[in-house]
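Deliverable D2.4 — example input (structure tokens):
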């Protein structure tokens, strides 16, 4: 290249970084080496794919979404090139990523050898993490509803890789009672995300022995509280016999021996094996507030 070409590249690069020569991109486009730097994209009208230039020389691209719509906006590497993100799941990265929400941005740099490295992004929260929100709107940066949704494996390959590596993957046929797990979907082209709506979250026991025999993502019934309506007599029973699993009780060190029943009387005395009077019961649930649940998809 001539000196004039070098100077033209420098000038073009400076203008691109300042965003002075870039109109907002609103439709599918294959970028050239001169269309790098700071890029704005808008998928209000429809979803589309923006293809990066070949990563055959040193260059930076900072691509930012300006709309907050739900149309799918894909940033694709050229040809067989790759974008190096979530390399703990795929060492060679992935051929594309998705920009989700207004303000979502990724800053990429070419390694001059066929790959793009991620220097920065709006939200680097780990993939698959569930959170509560104080808004029903979706935050930008890669969040979706924590709602047991069916996804396409080809459209979300990094999430499918995460599901397979999670130790929390089951089949659709075995999903009942394991709604907190990922599933294999149709077994070929889809998968399902965990379901969290209307549920309380609990930390996995992981060999502590308080909530033993649980597997990650499994559901648990509410603790059933049998009692009676005679204020001068028994008010609550704690079953620790073979039916404790059906009642939803944990096994604690020092609990009554297997096969016994204890209750607390009005006088505060703990008595073994009482005779119940006017039995009734129900599941315990603390006062609570419902917040929208979200899960990180990229």
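Example output (designed residues):
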């Amino acid at each position: 290249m001539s000196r004039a070409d070098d100077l033209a590249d420098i000038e073009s690069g400076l203008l691109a970084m300042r965003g002075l020569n870039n109109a907002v991109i609103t439709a599918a486009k294959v970028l050239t080496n001169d269309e790098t730097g700071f890029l704005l994209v808008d998928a209000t009208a429809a979803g589309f794919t923006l293809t990066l230039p070949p990563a055959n020389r040193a260059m930076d691209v900072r691509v930012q979404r300006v709309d907050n719509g739900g149309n799918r906006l894909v940033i694709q590497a050229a040809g067989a090139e790759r974008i190096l993100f979530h390399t703990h799941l795929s060492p060679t990265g992935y051929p594309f990523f998705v920009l989700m929400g207004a303000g979502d941005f990724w800053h990429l740099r070419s390694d001059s050898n066929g790959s793009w490295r991620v220097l920065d992004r709006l939200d680097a929260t780990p993939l698959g993490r569930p959170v509560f929100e104080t808004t029903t709107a979706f935050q930008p940066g890669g969040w979706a509803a924590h709602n047991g949704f069916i996804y396409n494996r080809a459209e979300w390959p990094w999430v499918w890789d995460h599901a397979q590596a999670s130790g929390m993957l089951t089949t659709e046929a075995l999903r009942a009672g394991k709604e907190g797990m990922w599933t294999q979907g149709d077994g070929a082209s889809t998968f399902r995300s965990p379901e969290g709506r209307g549920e309380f979250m609990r930390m996995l026991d992981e060999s502590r022995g308080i909530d033993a025999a649980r597997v990650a993502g499994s559901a648990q019934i509410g603790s059933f509280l049998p009692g009676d309506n005679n204020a001068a007599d028994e008010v609550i029973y704690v079953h620790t016999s073979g039916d404790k699993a059906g009642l939803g009780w944990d096994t604690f060190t020092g609990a009554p021996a297997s096969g016994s029943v204890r209750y607390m009387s009005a006088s505060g005395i703990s008595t073994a094996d009482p005779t119940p009077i006017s039995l009734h019961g129900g599941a315990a649930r603390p006062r609570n507030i419902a917040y929208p649940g979200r899960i990180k998809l990229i």
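Residues 3-121 form a domain with the Jelly Rolls fold (CATH 2.60.120).
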